[in-house]
Amino acid sequence: MSDLEKYIDQRKKTDIDFALDYEEGFADFKLGETLKQMRKDAGLSQEELASLLHTHKPAISRMENHAEDLLMSTLFKVAHACGKRIDIKFLDESRG
C-alpha cells in the first residue's frame, strides 16, 4: 500500500465528511472513465457521440471529465448510442 493509500485509508477512518466526499468523488471519476471507455469501445469520437445525442462535443467532454450529477435519461441515451444497456444495482454499504 502506497503512502497516499495509507493516508487516504487513515483519513477516511477518522473524518466521516472526508470519507463521504472521497467515495462520492471517486464514484464520479469512475463513471466518467466508464463513459469514455464505452464510447471508445463503440468506435465513436466525442464529436460522433455528440451528433448521435443531438448535442455538442464540449457536453460529451464534460460528461467524461466531470461526471457528477448526470441525469439518468442522459446515461440511458449514451448507453443506447454506444450499443449498451444500463443495469442498476443497489449494494449494501458494507460491500463498498
Classified in CATH, the superfamily is lambda repressor-like DNA-binding domains
**Averaged pLDDT:** 92
Q: Give the number of helices.
A: 5
Given the C-alpha coordinates, what overall shape results? elongated
Roughly how many Å apart are the termini? 18 Å
Strand % is under 5%
Given helix and strand content, the structural type is mainly alpha
Main beta sheet, described? Answer: none
Poorly predicted runs of 5 or more residues: none
Tell me roughly what share of residues is in helical segments: 55-70%
The whole-angstrom Rg is 16 Å
CATH topology group: 434 Repressor (Amino-terminal Domain)
CATH class: Mainly Alpha
What's the topology here?
Elements: H1 3-14, H2 16-41, H3 46-52, H4 57-65, H5 72-81
Helix pairs in contact: 1-2, 3-4
Written overview of the protein:
The chain has 96 residues and is mainly alpha-helical. The chain has one domain (3-86): Orthogonal Bundle (434 Repressor (Amino-terminal Domain)). The protein is built from 5 helices and no strands. Helix 1 (3-14) packs across helix 2 (16-41) and helix 3 (46-52) packs across helix 4. It is elongated and about 45 Å long. The two termini are 18 Å apart. The model has no long low-confidence stretch (mean pLDDT 92).
